[in-house]
Amino acid sequence: MPRNLLGILIAIFVVLVVVMNSLFIVRQEQQAIVLRFGEYTNAINEPGTDEPGLYFKAPFIDSVVLFDRRNIGLTLESQDFVAADQERLIVDAIVRWQIADPRRFYQSALTEEGGASRMATFTQAAMRRALGTADTNEIISGRRAELMQQIEGDLNAAAATELGVRVLDVRIRQADFPPETRERIYERMRSERQQVAGRIRAEGERDAAIIRAEAQEQSERLRGEGEGERARIFARAYGRDAEFAAFYRSMRAYETALDENTPIVVPPDSDFFRYMQRRRGN
Q1: In angstroms, rounded to a whole number, what is the distance separating the alpha carbons of residues 99 and 48?
Q2: pTM, to two decimals
Q3: Alpha carbon 25 to chain centroid distance?
Q4: Which residues, in sequence order, are CB contacts of 241 under 8 Å at separation 6+?
Q5: Residue of 222, 164, 23, 177 lying closest to 85 (CA atoms)
Q6: Over the range 208-243, which residues count as b (16 or more CB within 10 Å of their CB) and which as e?
Q7: Spatial separation of the C-alpha atoms in residues 134 and 278, rounded to whole Å
Q8: What distance in Å separates the CA atoms of residue 118 and residue 109, rounded to the nearest whole number?
Q9: What is the pLDDT of residues 135-157, one digit of tens each?
């Protein structure tokens, strides 16, 4: 092989190596930081910007680190926590997060795997702080949404400062008792529910008795008021016409005493039947 041809091939190879070390591509779903001798120089296509494409860097002295620009999922399975009532719970959780500051993320975690590991540690600490203030009933059902928001806020404060990430969502996927204590705790919860139901039932019966007594009292009062008004009306009527009053009293006495098929023995000239003997009854 001629010497000049060998030189040309070597030059072409060197140029290709230099070009390959000078160009890099940042895809739409990626973000990148450029390092010069290991020191940060700039970031490309970080969240809030739109800068994908082909880029140049100084060959051999600049290096590029690529990170995912999309939301990243972290699943924590079978995490053991102790609630405020000292009961153990096995909790599964999901965290969605995003690298918001690639420079800080690189300085703290170097790689996405290292960042995920630190996020798991931060999440466990935030969950321990939140779940340690709630009892098992609140964690399983009563306050789960509130506790997830508390964990998300706590995790955001720590992760943003330490890792340069933004926590988008925290979900407690499942919270249950360990198998060895599950039946005992469920039996205790059933007993507590029965006690609550009994108390509510007793309160309802007490309230019903109070309502019935008040209704009865009001009924008696209204009946008394009606009887009093009736007596006043009769008194006014009796005062106006004594003969009509005597007649009315006799008619009421007949109505009360002479039921159908009821025998009654009195003399025909008895004063009881005076209005049946004479029109005026005297």
Answers
A1: 11
A2: 0.59
A3: 46
A4: none
A5: 177
A6: eeeeeeeeeeeeeeeeeeeeeeeeeeeeeeeeeeee
A7: 92
A8: 8
A9: 877 777 777 788 888 888 888 88
